[in-house]
Write a structure and sequence with these properties.
The protein is an alpha+beta fold. About 30% of the residues lie in helices and about 20% in strands. Strand 2 and strand 3 form a beta hairpin.
Length: about 110
């Protein structure tokens, strides 16, 4: 079972993900009901096999997308801006896929 990253202020984690090899994308949640349990579960399934570092940030909260509880703590409603960060093999594809999931209206 993947270990969940503790929620920490963004400034404390920035140094870990501040490398030029980190892919970042700002995404606006456009789902009518925001991120609730079903879409969070789909996100966890999507990132499950990614071996690199990956985080989703909102303001000063950083969530590990491998944890449904972390994702729910973002309290991402429709219109919320999130930053998706990833590094490692296939980081760009992972960020693009997460951006699509965060802005899609799936699992309503």
């Amino acid at each position: 079972m993947a270990e969940s990253l503790p929620l920490q202020p963004r400034a404390e984690i920035e140094t870990d993900m501040n490398s030029p090899s980190v892919i970042r994308q700002t995404v606006t949640v456009t789902r009518e009901n925001g991120l609730h349990l079903v879409p969070c579960s789909e996100i966890v399934k999507y990132v499950r096999d990614f071996s690199g570092e990956v985080r989703i940030c909102r303001d000063d909260i950083v969530a590990d997308p491998r944890s449904v509880l972390d994702l729910l703590q973002l309290k991402a409603e429709n219109g919320t801006e999130l930053i998706v960060e990833a590094s490692g093999n296939d980081a760009e594809a992972l960020v693009q896929g997460l951006a699509a999931l965060l802005s899609a209206d799936f699992g309503s």
